């Protein structure tokens, strides 16, 4: 397994830990991986081969904006709302209420 594939798999493993109805950030995922490479996390998520079991729609930007999604922003909003997350104008309401932090 090459370095990038290994990094991607570690991202996916963490993603599967995020409970339904919670969100995390690219930065938080990078921190949990012992890295500051949140852009690399975004690249890994863009290559996610299984959107069903690896819920990358639960990863948003640190400023509360929902960011991009392989199936489009509207689909990401639809999925997050279906999990009970409140979104207004493409931004998570009460960010802290839904935030999932990985334990060190």
From TrEMBL:
Gene3D superfamilies: Winged helix-like DNA-binding domain superfamily/Winged helix DNA-binding domain. CDD domains: ATase (cd06445). It comes from the Bacteria. Keywords: DNA damage. Residues 6-85 form the Methylated-DNA-[protein]-cysteine S-methyltransferase DNA binding domain. Pfam families: DNA_binding_1. This is MGMT family protein.
């Amino acid at each position: 397994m090459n370095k990038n594939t290994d990094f991607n798999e570690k991202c996916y493993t963490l993603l599967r830990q995020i409970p339904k109805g919670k969100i995390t950030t690219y930065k938080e995922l990078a921190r949990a991986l012992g890295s500051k490479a949140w852009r690399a996390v975004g690249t890994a998520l863009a290559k996610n081969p299984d959107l069903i079991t690896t819920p990358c729609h639960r990863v948003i930007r640190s400023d509360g904006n929902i960011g991009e999604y392989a199936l489009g922003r509207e689909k990401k909003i639809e999925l997050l709302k279906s999990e009970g997350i409140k979104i207004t104008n493409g931004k998570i309401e009460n960010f802290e209420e839904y935030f999932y932090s990985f334990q060190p």
